[in-house]
Specification:
The protein is an alpha+beta fold. Helix content is about 30%, strand content about 25%. It has one domain. It has two helices and six strands.
Length: about 110
Amino acid sequence: MGSWFMKYELSKYESIDVELLTEGKTIAVSRTRDIEAIISLVRDSKYINELCDGIRTHKITVDNEVYYLLEGCSEIQKGKKQAKISKEDLESFLKIIDYYNETIIE
Protein backbone atom coordinates (compact mmCIF):
# COMPACT_ATOMS: atom_id res chain seq x y z
CA MET A 1 0.00 0.00 0.00
CA GLY A 2 1.18 3.46 -0.77
CA SER A 3 0.28 6.68 0.92
CA TRP A 4 -1.99 9.30 -0.58
CA PHE A 5 1.09 11.42 -1.22
CA MET A 6 2.97 8.89 -3.35
CA LYS A 7 3.01 9.73 -7.02
CA TYR A 8 2.25 6.86 -9.38
CA GLU A 9 2.50 7.44 -13.11
CA LEU A 10 1.48 4.98 -15.75
CA SER A 11 3.52 4.73 -18.90
CA LYS A 12 2.14 6.71 -21.81
CA TYR A 13 3.16 3.84 -24.09
CA GLU A 14 1.07 0.71 -24.53
CA SER A 15 3.88 -0.88 -26.51
CA ILE A 16 6.95 -0.03 -28.53
CA ASP A 17 8.22 -1.83 -31.59
CA VAL A 18 11.75 -3.15 -31.84
CA GLU A 19 12.94 -4.33 -35.23
CA LEU A 20 15.32 -7.27 -35.18
CA LEU A 21 17.38 -6.21 -38.18
CA THR A 22 19.39 -9.41 -38.48
CA GLU A 23 16.23 -11.55 -38.42
CA GLY A 24 13.98 -9.33 -40.50
CA LYS A 25 11.09 -9.14 -38.03
CA THR A 26 9.54 -6.72 -35.58
CA ILE A 27 8.44 -7.46 -32.03
CA ALA A 28 6.09 -5.42 -29.84
CA VAL A 29 7.36 -4.86 -26.30
CA SER A 30 4.28 -4.51 -24.13
CA ARG A 31 5.11 -5.01 -20.43
CA THR A 32 5.34 -1.62 -18.72
CA ARG A 33 8.61 -2.39 -16.94
CA ASP A 34 10.22 -3.50 -20.21
CA ILE A 35 8.98 -0.43 -22.07
CA GLU A 36 10.29 1.88 -19.37
CA ALA A 37 13.66 0.09 -19.25
CA ILE A 38 14.16 0.46 -23.01
CA ILE A 39 12.98 4.07 -23.08
CA SER A 40 15.23 4.93 -20.16
CA LEU A 41 18.18 3.27 -21.87
CA VAL A 42 17.80 5.12 -25.17
CA ARG A 43 16.82 8.50 -23.73
CA ASP A 44 19.19 8.70 -20.76
CA SER A 45 22.32 7.73 -22.67
CA LYS A 46 24.84 10.45 -23.51
CA TYR A 47 25.30 10.58 -27.26
CA ILE A 48 28.80 11.99 -27.66
CA ASN A 49 30.94 9.31 -29.27
CA GLU A 50 31.85 8.98 -32.90
CA LEU A 51 30.19 6.18 -34.82
CA CYS A 52 31.81 2.75 -34.53
CA ASP A 53 32.02 0.27 -37.39
CA GLY A 54 29.57 -2.14 -35.78
CA ILE A 55 26.53 -3.74 -37.35
CA ARG A 56 23.10 -2.41 -36.45
CA THR A 57 21.21 -5.29 -34.84
CA HIS A 58 18.07 -3.62 -33.44
CA LYS A 59 16.03 -0.56 -34.42
CA ILE A 60 13.95 1.17 -31.74
CA THR A 61 11.57 4.01 -32.53
CA VAL A 62 10.29 6.17 -29.67
CA ASP A 63 8.32 9.36 -30.34
CA ASN A 64 9.56 9.56 -33.94
CA GLU A 65 13.21 9.27 -32.81
CA VAL A 66 15.10 6.32 -34.25
CA TYR A 67 17.77 4.52 -32.23
CA TYR A 68 19.94 1.62 -33.33
CA LEU A 69 21.64 -0.89 -31.08
CA LEU A 70 25.11 -1.86 -32.25
CA GLU A 71 25.48 -4.98 -30.17
CA GLY A 72 29.12 -5.68 -31.12
CA CYS A 73 30.19 -2.21 -30.00
CA SER A 74 27.86 -2.08 -26.95
CA GLU A 75 26.57 1.24 -28.22
CA ILE A 76 23.32 2.92 -29.16
CA GLN A 77 23.24 5.17 -32.20
CA LYS A 78 21.04 8.24 -32.49
CA GLY A 79 21.61 10.20 -35.66
CA LYS A 80 25.34 10.67 -36.17
CA LYS A 81 26.29 10.13 -32.52
CA GLN A 82 26.60 7.06 -30.34
CA ALA A 83 26.44 6.33 -26.65
CA LYS A 84 28.39 3.58 -24.93
CA ILE A 85 26.18 1.33 -22.78
CA SER A 86 27.25 -0.88 -19.91
CA LYS A 87 27.47 -4.66 -20.17
CA GLU A 88 24.61 -4.92 -17.67
CA ASP A 89 22.36 -2.59 -19.69
CA LEU A 90 23.12 -4.51 -22.87
CA GLU A 91 22.35 -7.84 -21.18
CA SER A 92 19.09 -6.46 -19.73
CA PHE A 93 18.01 -5.18 -23.13
CA LEU A 94 18.81 -8.48 -24.82
CA LYS A 95 16.92 -10.45 -22.14
CA ILE A 96 13.84 -8.31 -22.80
CA ILE A 97 14.14 -8.86 -26.54
CA ASP A 98 14.70 -12.62 -26.10
CA TYR A 99 11.57 -12.87 -23.94
CA TYR A 100 9.38 -11.31 -26.64
CA ASN A 101 11.17 -13.06 -29.49
CA GLU A 102 10.45 -16.45 -27.88
CA THR A 103 6.77 -15.64 -27.28
CA ILE A 104 6.01 -14.52 -30.85
CA ILE A 105 3.48 -16.81 -32.48
CA GLU A 106 4.01 -17.02 -36.19
